[in-house]
Amino acid sequence: MTTQQRSNPIYKYIGGAAAAGVTLLAAYYHDRAIFDENREGIKTIGGWPLVGNLPLLLQYKEKMHDFLFESFKLLEDRTLTMSALGIPRHIATVNPANVEHVLKGPEFHGAMNDLFGNGIFNANGAEWKYQRKTASHVFNVKNFRDQFTDVFVQEIEYMSEKIWDSALEKNEAVDFHDIMFKFTLDSFILLGFGVQLNALGSKGKVPFAAAFDEAQKNTFQRFVNPIWPVTERIQKLAMPWKPSMNEHLHVVDSFAREVTEKRREEIARGEEKKDLLSRFMNARNDKGELLNNTELRDIVLNFVIAGRDTTAQALSWTFYLLMNHPRVEEKLMQEINEHITDDVMHDSPALYEVIKNMKYAHAVFYEVLRLYPSVPLNQKYALNDDVWPDGTEIRKGDYILWSPYSQGRNEENWGPTAEQFRPERWFDANGELKRETQGQWPAFHVGPRVCLGQHLATLEALVAITFLLKRYKFKLIPGQDITYQVSLTLPMKNGMMVTVEKRE
């Protein structure tokens, strides 16, 4: 603008009017994003004028789960709403009755589409139904008893020899979290796809696993960043040396397609396999067509995250809590020594039956998942107006958040000891193990989409916990910052370094 233009009273009038307009808008939308309606009857965290909670979401994006938990505590309610510029209206709840009331929504599909495609986590309708039905055949009790337990024991024996016994001899510290990721990746790739990945035998991270971790991390960040297509391009220009989302996806794609092509060649040679990938290769999609490589790629990636990440993280948080709660570890060791003999450890059918009946071990695992759920935050979408069981009025187009991480720590849900690690809460007055409703304890999701692999995950975790505790005593190296990485699941951000001793 020239000097003459600045002195022109018309320009001064326009500038003054614009400033007055912004001031009026800021006064009206003083605690929420511009043009967002005030939602009567739903408590809210006060936001900034015109932008609402966007600065808070960006400030706490690395501690999102604790931010939500503290917000529920601050408001003293189990349902709240947030208004943020550029992000659709979100209503969050930790009320168990509400949790059972929500529906799968399209934004989850959009944000995850690059990584998960149209696999079972992301699919809807007929596509989802056929994938779930086909996958359900693998997750039956007979397979648990025969194939699955054999694989878990095989991989644990390899892990013991190559990792833990070696660390004992050399008196070396080991990243427990990294080892658990390698163990579950090897186990599930072998079970699901018949491939020996040998992540446990690799010094560093397997390229597929490293790229997959970064792709997951980036996918979650897209939820809280409405302009992610722009910021990802800017980041690539500003830091060209840093691998982009597309480069991570290329690594992941190459791995999945290589697995698929190898299996096609094996089937062409007349080989028969009973793993998950083979079942899907012989299946047809909802249009009656054999699956193409892209469809199979989506399925591979969906079940890798289901089998690998969630169980690895649950094991890591289990041992973190046990190392910090020696009373619980001692009580669990008593049950293990009472039930697990050397003969049972190498008899898979017998091991399955024994572990299935170890009540305290199950209580420990359930309590870990209450405090550190493998999927700590979920999102759904309201297809129509609705009223929740707690009276909250939902409007068509609202996005719904429920936070198992916050829910498990909520005192109204779990009593005054909600933030404490107490496996005993999982026993009734008669000393019998109890299971809460899916809404109260949504560790394996809720409703028709409840996790098909929940029994597989529990079995794998308890086999690993039992074997490792019976043989070794782990100690946490002091001074570490043990916290989560914000992602689709709940990995440890900095790993977890431990020392290991032989169990007497």
From TrEMBL:
It comes from the Eukaryota. The chain crosses the membrane at residues 12-29. Its cofactor is heme. One of its GO terms (biological process) is lipid metabolic process. GO terms for molecular function: heme binding; iron ion binding; monooxygenase activity; oxidoreductase activity, acting on paired donors, with incorporation or reduction of molecular oxygen. PANTHER family: CYTOCHROME P450 (PTHR24296). This is Cytochrome P450. It comes from Phascolomyces articulosus.
